[in-house]
Design brief:
The complex is a heterodimer of chains A (316) and B (272).
Chain A lengths: L1 E9 L2 E10 L5 E5 L6 H8 L7 E5 L5 H4 L7 E4 L11 H12 L7 H7 L15 H13 L5 E5 L7 H16 L3 E6 L2 H7 L2 E6 L2 E7 H7 L2 E7 L2 H10 L3 E7 L2 E6 L1 H13 L4 E7 L3 H10 L8 H12 L1
Parallel strand pairs in A: 3-7, 3-8, 5-6, 6-7
Antiparallel strand pairs in A: 1-2, 1-4, 8-9, 10-12, 10-13, 11-12
Helix pairs in contact in A: 4-5
Chain B lengths: L4 H14 L1 H23 L19 H12 L1 H10 L4 H6 L2 H5 L5 H35 L4 E2 L5 E2 L1 H33 L2 H20 L29 H27 L6
Antiparallel strand pairs in B: 1-2
Helix pairs in contact in B: 1-7, 2-4, 2-7, 3-7, 3-8, 4-7, 4-8, 4-9, 7-8, 7-10, 8-9, 8-10
The chains are: A alpha/beta (316), B mainly alpha (272).
Chain lengths: 316, 272
Amino acid sequence: MEARGLVKQYGRITAVDHVDVTVNAGDVYGFLGPNGAGKTTTLRMMLGLIYPTGGSVRVFGRDPITEGAAALEGVAGFVEAPRFYPYLSARKNLEMMASYDGNGARDRVEAVLDTVEMTARADDKVGGYSHGMRQRLGIAGALLRDPKLLILDEPATGLDPGGMRDMRALIRRLADDGMTVLLSSHLLAEVEELCDRVAIVRAGRIVYEGAISDLKATAETAYRVRTNDNTRALEICAAQAGVSAVRADGLEIRMEANEPAMAELSVALVHANLKIHALVPETATLEDLFFHLTEGSTPGEISAPVIDQLAAGGAA
Amino acid sequence: MRPGVWTVYRWELRKLISLKRTYLGLAAAAGVPLSFAITLALKKGQPNDVPFGAYVHQSGLAIPLVLLTFASAFLLPLITALVAGDIVAAEDQNGTLKTILTRSVQRGHVFFGKVLAALTYTIVSLVLLGGVSIVAGSLVSGFNPLRSLSGTTVSATSALWLVLASFAVYLVPLGTICLVGVMYSTVTRNSAAAVVGTLVTVLLIELVGILPGLGFLQPYLLTRQFPAWQGLLRQPIDWSPITHSIWVCALYGVPAVIAGYLVFLRRDVAGG
């Protein structure tokens, strides 16, 4: 799945601003950003639900914008909360979706009900379902299509902790079975736990795309160093290229640097005949990086309540 | 089998069967002729100012024809609009449009499946109104010969066929209202607005017909096509109002379908 230069404007408001996303086969891809950053709008464009103002989408080489439903062969998922006909039972809803899928989906209804553990309630009307059951039914509906790419928009949002755990376990299981998953989330912990690649989106723009491990490695990380002569060490640290925010902190020196710069620094310290007692990286969590990226250059774009919400979400 | 219009049509019918709204309209379509027939059985009076009103006590077959005139003003457009106005907008309001548009069925097929389902409902309600009024009318006033609009007497059996044909002709303007309703349903994305919009359109067209100075428009007004069936009740049969009705209705119905189709095809599904 590949999106290139996606733009969506509503009047003068640009909801999505030149978004590039590449999801390779086998990825569990996280689409991360605060609420209102344009994640759902982007996913809707990928599913052919809304027409982009500019840019293109290719899903398995086909264009859902011009080809419509035909291009969504092998793709399934939902945006925001999955919706059903409340006056029909879960089984009837699934049977209807399966009919609209063709391709033998009708034979998979019982199997997907079983996968999301809903067989017992399948004949009840969806109108009486809890939020968590609807989310699971949404996954069941997506699995009916026997997809190679599963697009899920905040699937665990609004679930209780147990439901969240089950949802993540389910996604993990599907990914382990070889399904490619594009998962949007504002929950950092969720993305960190499930995804190996990530796009971080802020105010309609991608601020980072790549592997989570690369993101962590390239990010400025705090280090603590203790030597036998901190006074001299402080000078060397301050002079070292790529090392910043150097300051003495009791028996230690604190600084920010990336891995290669720290490697150089350790050599420099040894060349100066200093004995290194300790060199401890304080690993940045994705949360730190996320805040760094999403609050970065133009402060004030993300409102305080959103940040509070994010912090709460990240801690969950 | 690849899913297409037929798949959508079948599921739309199943959904209609599961909805209360459907039975509201059908109950009215059956209840109105029933209560009309009961009233006639109890009272001696008759509606003299409508075609066949004077014969309701002589022949039960006059009763469905009188009802056609009465129901055209409000009842049947309302019953039709109730479902046609809801059929796309309800999906918007429930957020289920995204559910069906992310499957393998094309948008155009979804739209035409819905159009066919709405038309089917219109036909069913008209058949119900016709069937109940023919049976109840015949029970109350007898399955007797009918006096045609030309003054000749038509045998009961021939009259029955003419009544059935009249309902078929009546379906042309009523079906057109259904198409207008689906168009409103698609464009407004709001069920109530679409139902009211359809009815207001019908009333406005009717209003244009009675405005002084606009009389020349009358033959081209949608609501003025409802009495076209009366051509069948003349001897010999006068086909001209019927053919006229068909092409005038096409002038309303075809643009409505095209507009609804294009809007449905091009629109963003952003809600839900």
